[in-house]
Amino acid sequence: MTVRHRGALAAMAAGAAALTVATLVACGSGPAEDVGADEAAALASATPTPTATATGSGDPAVPVNAGTLPAGGKTIPPVKLRIPAIGVTASVNPVGVNQRTDEFEVPPSVDQVGWYRYGPGLEAESGSVVIAGHVDSADQGKGAFFRLRELDRGDTLTTTGEDGRERKFTVVAREEYAKTKIPLDRYFARDGKPRLTLITCGGPFDPKTRHYRDNIVVTAVPA
Q: Which InterPro entries match (predicted)?
């Protein structure tokens, strides 16, 4: 499967954006100021990752890392994510891009999160392992990443791989970007130091477009 044209990070990072209503806007409107931005940038390689072509939607394009999983069966998907500081214990499902809608297929249940399966797995010695989740839903309420904006440097989290092994990470950065400004090449890269990238929606909610304006991005490194 190939990552197609529209930069649907919004749908991946919080598929609930299309489901939310104005009554839930407060949950994503006031994150703390950015921390660790320089450290997050330093983890990434200077080599840009090829990106899909953006359409007139105004959203950035999601980097095209690969059309298939690496050969040899060595990719280890995350299957569970625990973040004690914000009370998260969530199943992790592999997700890609819906070829009909050009949007990421975030798990429909807001208590679950999605791993970008065309990027690195947990065994990777370089690159960004991307996990995205809902912030909320009009039908289902608070999502798994409802409190993601509360994470701070030094907070710890644990991913469990399909191999049953737990891997611990430490948060080094929390940033907020307008969705049209987020540097996707950095956060979806296969190169640079190994890191875990968590993404959801944030900022004010626009009831006309039924989307949040921003993305919250948390970067964590192996503990």
A: Sortase (IPR005754), Sortase_dom-sf (IPR023365), Sortase_F (IPR042001)
Cα distances from 175 to residues 92, 117, 168, 201, in angstroms, run 22, 23, 21, 11
DSSP state, residue 42: H
Report the candidate in 30, 23, 24 with the shortest Cα–Cα distance to residue 214.
30
pTM of the model: 0.79
pLDDT of residue 166: 98
> How many beta carbons lie within 10 A of that of residue 51, not counting itself?
17
Q: Is residue 52 part of a domain?
A: no
- Assigned domain for 23 exists: no
Contacts of 73 (CB under 8 A, 6+ apart): none
Which has more confidence, 208 or 8?
A: 208
Residue 54 in any domain: the answer is no
Query: Are the C-beta atoms of residues 173 and 44 closer than 8 Å to each other?
Result: no
CA distance 194 to 219: 10
Q: List the structure tokens of 183.
A: 């540097």
Q: CA nearest 198: which of 175, 217, 180, 213?
A: 217
> Residue 40: which residues within 8 A CB-CB, separation 6 or more?
172, 173, 175, 186, 217, 219
Checking if the pLDDT of 78 tops 50, the result is: yes
Q: How many CA atoms lie within 13 A of 122 on its CB side?
A: 23
Regarding beta strands 166-178 and 156-161, do their DSSP bridges make them parallel or antiparallel, or are they unpaired? antiparallel
